[in-house]
Amino acid sequence: MKEDPIRVITIDGPSGSGKGALSFLLSQWMSWNVLDSGAIYRVLAYSCRSNNVDLLNENRVAELARDLKADFQTAENGEIRTIFQGFDISDIIRREESGKAASKIASMPRVREALVLQQQSFRKAPGLIADGRDMGTVVFPDAILKIFLSADESVRASRRYLQLMGKGESVSLARLRGEIELRDKRDISRKVSPLVPAEDALIIDSTNLSATEVFERVLDEVSRLKIT
Fold first, then answer.
1. How many CB atoms neighbour CB 126 within 10 A?
2. What is the number of structural domains in the chain?
3. Based on CB atoms within 10 Å of each CB, which residue in 73, 150, 181, 191 is the most buried?
4. How far apart (Å, rounded) are the C-alpha atoms in residues 135 and 40?
5. pLDDT tens across 12-50, in order?
6. Mean pLDDT (the chain, rounded)
7. Per the domain annotation, does 168 fall within a domain?
8. Is 189 within a domain?
9. CATH number, domain containing residue 85
10. What's the CA gap between 36 and 82, in Å, rounded?
11. 1 part of a folded domain
C-alpha cells in the first residue's frame, strides 16, 4: 500500500479521559485539522432519529452511515463545533442520550465498516489530529504518533459531571459513573474494533494530570519525533 504523505496523530481512549481537550490543544498548536470520531457516531444516531430509523436495524443504520456528511468548524471561542446538513448540532449530540445511542450503534460491524471511509476522508493537508477509540488500531494504523489516554472511572465521571452541569443539565454523578462503566465494558468487549491501545501507542494515565500537563507530555513526544 502506498504511504499517505499527510501525517496523522491519533488520540484514543475511553470517555472522560481527556481526548477532546488534548485534540483541541494539539490541533491549535500544530494548525492541523481535527476529527472527533465520537461525534460522527453521535451524528449518525441523530440522523437515525430524524429519519425514524430503528437503532437496532443494523442494515438501515449502515445505509445512513454510508451517506453521512458531517463537518467540524472551530468557533470564535476555540470550541470545535459539529455541522450536519448546514446546521450546528453540537449541543444536541452532546446530551447523554445521544452518547448512549452512539455507543449502541458503534458496536455494529457494518456500521463501523461504513464509517471508516468517512473518517479517513478527514485526512487532509497539513495534517490530522484524530480523536476516538480505534483511530490508531483501525482507521489510521500508519499514524506517525499514536496516543492512548486512560483515567480512573470515578475521575472520568466527575469530569463529565462538571461538564454537563456547566451546560445547565441536571445529572446524577452516580448514574454517570454507571453509564461510563457500561460504555467501557461495551467498547472493550465488542468483537469489531475493541477499545485497546495500539501496540506502538504512547499510553498516558491522565487521572492526576491537568489538560495542560497531558498536552505538555505529548508535546515532548512531538518534539522528540520532530513532527512539525
1. 11
2. 1
3. 150
4. 13
5. 999 889 998 999 899 999 999 999 998 899 999 999 999
6. 90
7. yes
8. yes
9. 3.40.50.300
10. 9
11. no
Cell of 142: 500508519
Residue labelled with grid coordinates 480505534: 134
Report in angstroms the alpha-carbon separations of 121 from 32, 69, 102, 155. Answer: 14, 11, 20, 34
- Within 13 A of 24's CA, how many CA atoms are on the CB side? 14
Predicted TM-score (pTM) above 0.85:
yes
First to last CA, the chain: 24
The answer to whether position 185 is within a domain reads: yes
Q: By residue range, what is the domain housing residue 179?
A: 7-221
Three-state secondary structure readout of the chain: CCCCCCEEEEEECCCCCCHHHHHHHHHHHHCCEEEEHHHHHHHHHHHHHHCCCCCCCHHHHHHHHHCCCEEEEECCCCCEEEEECCEECHHHHCCHHHHHHHHHHCCCHHHHHHHHHHHHCCCCCCEEEEEECCHHHHHCCCCCEEEEEECCHHHHHHHHHHHHHHCCCCCCHHHHHHHHHHHHHHHHHCCCCCCCCCCCCEEEECCCCCHHHHHHHHHHHHHHCCCC
Is the peptide bond between 197 and the residue preceding it cis, with omega within 30 degrees of 0?
Answer: no
